[in-house]
Amino acid sequence: MDIIGMQKKIDRQIRDPVVKTEAERYSLRTRLAFLPDDVIGQSWFFRLLTFLYYYFFVFFHAFEVVGIEKIDPDSGCLFIARHSTHNGDILGTLVCFYHKTGRVLRPLIHRYLTKFFPFLRLMGAVPGEPKSATSLLKSGFWVAVVPGGADEGMIGHENAYKVCWPKKRKGFAHVAVDAQVPIVPLFLANVDEMRWNPLLSLWNFLGLGRQFSYVLDLNIPILHSVLLIIGSTVWFLATFIQIPIPAKLTLYIGDPVQYDPSKDSIDDIVQRSHADLQRLINRCQPQGRSYSNAVKERFAGLLNCWKSTLLEVKSH
């Protein structure tokens, strides 16, 4: 299909005239994110992701969502989360979130990922640019961002449940204020235990992650940028080696961050968001990183399910 034909098809599928006007400000690729949730959810690509991830996450990890009632379904919302150490949670969580709630999260991802993996745009992903993110939020969509990015993902297993945002990551707060939407923390319990990676485990065991973070914190000109590019590339490639662990996965939706844009500065909003996300993690993952606990939760759930089924059968 030619470009003009695709553009007309997308415009026809955007049913809300206000959203359509907003979408027309952007390129064809970005305009895909303005498609209605059901259109994206029923697309061939999302159906493929459902086949690859949904049933595995539901039956192997007993994936569930807790706290969705806190979100206004008729307005935009900016979700913030911590980056995992392995990336194995991202696509599965996005797919399961849609099937559990009926809403498609529009993830803000690194611009290089959209260049190397352009198909991610078919599920509503867009580069993390303030302009398009603000437009999506104003149009009533639910947008998700991981402020810590790869920097947070590489910081090591010992910091798996610690919010570690680089000081310069404040864009999400600007976007939320401009769009006048709530900032809501998200946390996937047992996320670090759901995958085991021998390379990353060895890296962590040798303490190389701590040394790498120490050198980055020195912020040496040129060297900092070079190490960050090399490190993030090696880490990203290494994350493709994953061994699934039957850990119970629960996506917790926290309370909206309380802030007043007329009184609070951007730094205040960032600090409050950081603190609220960390509190949510501490409350939902009090044991920290524990493979045994994560697996016990999963099998305890299976046992309860079997007991309920037996009781139901006996009652009949």
From TrEMBL:
The Phospholipid/glycerol acyltransferase domain, residue ranges: 77-191
Keyword terms of this UniProt record: Membrane, Transmembrane, Transmembrane helix
Cellular component aspect of the GO annotation: membrane
TM segment ranges: 44-63, 222-241
Highest rank taxon of the organism: Eukaryota
Keyword Transmembrane annotated: yes
Molecular-function GO terms, alphabetical: acyltransferase activity
Protein's name according to its UniProt entry: Phospholipid/glycerol acyltransferase domain-containing protein
Phylogenetic placement of the source organism: Eukaryota, Metazoa, Spiralia, Gnathifera, Rotifera
